[in-house]
């Protein structure tokens, strides 16, 4: 990408009002407002534009059955490409690994918690015995697969809607609990007291991170937005998404990945789990930070040399 001279960017800073596209949910608006606040710290003016996505309209069909990658992002992509908005803000785990043509990643914000959590109804006694029976709710095929791998006798129920709606459904149900992303609840102060971190469950690639995208041709906006980019989070989420893309390429798959940075190295853990939870293949790799750029691709290619490849093929063929 060709960068513009600083004098030109400074002039655009003064003149421009960036139109931020966001979904209408409480969490999405919180994320967009955070971007607005960060831009204001760099003297960039902006305003929010609310757009309803297909994922917000259909609150019944499980996400993995919708058959569409980017179910929460494609409407914003269209608004971006038609120049109704200048940037779009997404939960990064919802964004397809292959961005729409003409759209580029402009910034990744510092990551919040990457953990999944269990919001439970009464108690967690049913977790003490992996052979126990219980009913757990989630619409995520990744969470379902990992849960069934650990608790094969549990039943999984579908749970859709924004975080407020899902919490209410849990309260009104007879379920033992439901799985949420910690970041989604914590950002809007909705995490219930009756919840625990699922430290054994590997998260979705880029879970807990917020990404800002813009039009590829809009170099001035890219440079303004890139000022709020967090390099360590950008590196870790790239590694995780590379792992996902190299294995299957889709975001609605039972693939988990987590890259974390220390002062000197990146530690990567990834796995793929059969949709029924019976099979799971894991990998762990480390690399010096300056050599970690391709760690996700390397980990995926190593996994493809094992029996995990047959599991991946069976999941692809089942779609």
TrEMBL record:
Its cofactor is dipyrromethane. InterPro entries: HemC, Porphobilin_deaminase_cofac_BS, Porphobilin_deaminase_N, Porphobilinogen_deaminase_C, Porphobilinogen_deaminase_C_sf. The keyword Cell membrane does not apply. Tetrapolymerization of the monopyrrole PBG into the hydroxymethylbilane pre-uroporphyrinogen in several discrete steps. It holds the Pfam family Porphobil_deamC. This is Hydroxymethylbilane synthase. Residues 18-220 form the Porphobilinogen deaminase N-terminal domain. It catalyses: 4 porphobilinogen + H2O = hydroxymethylbilane + 4 NH4(+). The keyword Transmembrane does not apply. Monomer. Residues 235-304 form the Porphobilinogen deaminase C-terminal domain. Its EC number is 2.5.1.61. GO terms for biological process: heme biosynthetic process. Belongs to the HMBS family. One of its GO terms (molecular function) is hydroxymethylbilane synthase activity. Pathway: Porphyrin-containing compound metabolism; protoporphyrin-IX biosynthesis; coproporphyrinogen-III from 5-aminolevulinate: step 2/4. It comes from the Bacteria. It comes from Hydrotalea sandarakina.
